[in-house]
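input
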Amino acid sequence: MRIYVSGSLAYDRIMSFPGRFADHILPDKLHILNVCFLVDGLAEKFGGTAGNIAYNLVLLGKSPLILSAAGKDFGAYETHLRKLGLSLEGIRHVDEEFTAGAYITTDRDDNQITGFNPGAMRQPCTYEIGHSQTGGAMAIIGPGNLQDMTTLPERFNALNIPYIFDPGQQIPALTGDQLRKCIAGAHIFISNDYEMEMVCKSTGLTKAEVTDLPNICITTLGEKGSVCRNGQGLQEIDAVPVKEVKDPTGAGDAYRAGLLCGLVDGMELAAACRMGARAAAFCVEQHGTQEHRFTLDEFWSRYPLHLGDPR
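output
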């Protein structure tokens, strides 16, 4: 089955400040704030919602097509994706822009200051999905270019391709009408509990009204697991125990990849959500969103008492 993954491709450039931000910010001088943090170094990681989801899908044995845009500095990321065996035909190259980048500085108390340059993400991917590519397909639309996020739902619906809608960090940039339309056309709407509140505020709908728009609504709750709602009622999915939480960044993308993989393989909703929970557990045990590794045997054997093996 063809899997389309729309969203961002980005470099995560992570810096560590050995002190505390609070020790260098004077509350009574915030109107003329001018601070400089001397960091210990810089680590560059591959990230972005589309890249992260696609990476986890590869670990799960799938070969998704990424729909996104990248810039003139994409070379290292391109090599990384090629090594994963992924096609690049759905990625638009924007030569006059840099690839999107998140510049993250973390202090010793894990407080973060982040700057994000959308760069090439300002441009839609422009990849044309034809009728010949729809035989047994499913898609996920994650946070990325706003035009892609609002036009791809129409395209997927026209081609009878069920899609998961995950507006995430782009919720404030979308209008209430856009959110309502994209969610209503989705097979699944997924968000965390904070994002759900943001959607309710933007659309003017209650949580119950939002959950009634798509066929299925999934709300992730971090270490508390997730909740799935469909026409058959509500199901609670437990989080998977982890050895050590090193970095929760990217866990949501890993969950979405596991969910999508399970649905593509024909699993029931609860089993697919448990696949998502399992993938997320591997992710949080490493720093970075694409640093964890597992084989399929490791994936299925690690938590047999909690999730079993539905293969």
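quick obs: The mean pLDDT is 91.
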